[in-house]
Amino acid sequence: MGSLGSDNIAELETNGSAFPLNPLEPEEFRRQGHLVIDFLADYYQNIHKYPVRSQVEPGYLKKILPESAPNQPESIETILSDITDHIILGITHWQSPNYFAYFPSSGSTAGFLGEMLSTGFNAVCFNWMSSPAATELEMIVTDWLGKLLALPEKFLFSGGGGGVLQGTTCEAILCTLTAARDRVLNKIGKDQISRLVVYGSDQTHCALQKAAQIAGIHPANFRAVTTFKSDMFGLNPEELQKVVSADVAAGLVPLYLCPTVGTTSSTAVDQLPGLCSVAAEHGMWVHVDAAYAGSACICPEFRHYIDGVEGATSFSFNAHKWFFTNLDCCCLWVQEPQALVNALSTNPEYLRNKATESQKVVDYKDWQIALSRRFRAMKLWMVMRSYGVANLRNFLRGHVRMAKLFEGLVSSDKRFEIVVPRNFAMVCFWLNPKKDRTGSGLDRVNELNRRLLEEVNSSGRMYMTHAVIGGEYVIRFAVGATLTEEKHVRCAWKAVREHAEALLGEHKRLQ
């Protein structure tokens, strides 16, 4: 790897002929593109050989790479060689068949190629005029997907609502919270923002609190309503009603509720019908966050998890999690697109055009935080067309079957316990041979599981993450990587048992 070093601009000019004639010269692009595709195909073919969680130490790359950029061009072969030798070491391999951490980022050939096409066109799709196909395809695929989810007609363009592809759930929540905020403040006065209250549960993703901070909600007016094991850690409408009633009595204004279908900690499902009823009593915006589990709801047998969504104002899920559409692609539907437009639109002279002024087109810049946006619809369209609904459903069902397999293996060993019921394709379990659950006993079990998880992950054989639910440190086993097969699940369980036996043997020797 070269660097700028002591070279000067004169040298650059003298050797200028070394540069390609044009950074987008078609034949050189073709040659390099083939090399990169082959490189990635080999990567996927061999990905199971890499430690799943990166084993490098902080700062490792700075010790390897030059301190400054190269003055002269370097070949794609040299760059790919350095990626093999240096970069792959520092990657946690989310596409590994032995990846069971966080939630999946299930890529696919179609998603990758759709991303290539989007990147290749490199269109900046802020309004209809800037790229009509990008806007209209996005409208079509969000309606397609909304119909697959059996969303109420009012969420579709055909019913007066509409869908938009955001980057992440964080953006979807921030956009809808901003729209809710402005809708209420336009009624009660801009100076009343300190009275607005946002509600989630103690299991709701931290994206909600972050969005509330950005939107100017007073930190004291963020509510994380307590959930209970008796409700499988789903938000109970009665608990919400208590908190909301107390806020109203104190002169505050309930603004926004974010129920979750498939929480990060345990895939708990909040009680949508009752929660929407409570919100309706107080005029709240209800945004349903189904970031992980929404994908599964295209399967008829899982659709009931979003029953009650007809009472919501907006709904989102991440196609880049468990819908085989490479990062990033968050699908958001709203009943009232104008609420987003009112809160997020700007119309400078340099963006004025006849199409916008005709009011016959959608300008997606007014549905999101940023002005610029990518052609995300291309990859979602590619995924849905390349695999078809039947196969997409079967991919999802396959992951659920593998999670059930792992659940059964855990349940067959009396030293382990399933901590919360499995809803989708994630199993929450822990090692608890003495069934301790209180006081110092619970502390010991929590520490035992913390050590077990770190031992497993440090081995590189697989990767899982944890959550603390009701004070219990649980290990999360999330099936969803595209390359995962039953053999990988069985090997994962074998690894867990082996490390557990080693830890328990160590504890016995120390006693």
TrEMBL record:
Pfam families: Pyridoxal_deC. GO terms for biological process: alkaloid metabolic process; amino acid metabolic process; carboxylic acid metabolic process; phenol-containing compound biosynthetic process; primary amino compound biosynthetic process. Keywords: Alkaloid metabolism, Decarboxylase, Lyase, Pyridoxal phosphate, Repeat. It comes from the Eukaryota. The modification N6-(pyridoxal phosphate)lysine is found at residue 321. Belongs to the group II decarboxylase family. Catalyzes the decarboxylation of L-tyrosine to tyramine, which is converted to norbelladine, a precursor to all Amaryllidaceae alkaloids such as galanthamine, lycorine and haemanthamine, and including haemanthamine- and crinamine-type alkaloids, promising anticancer agents. This is Tyrosine decarboxylase 1. The gene is TyDC1.
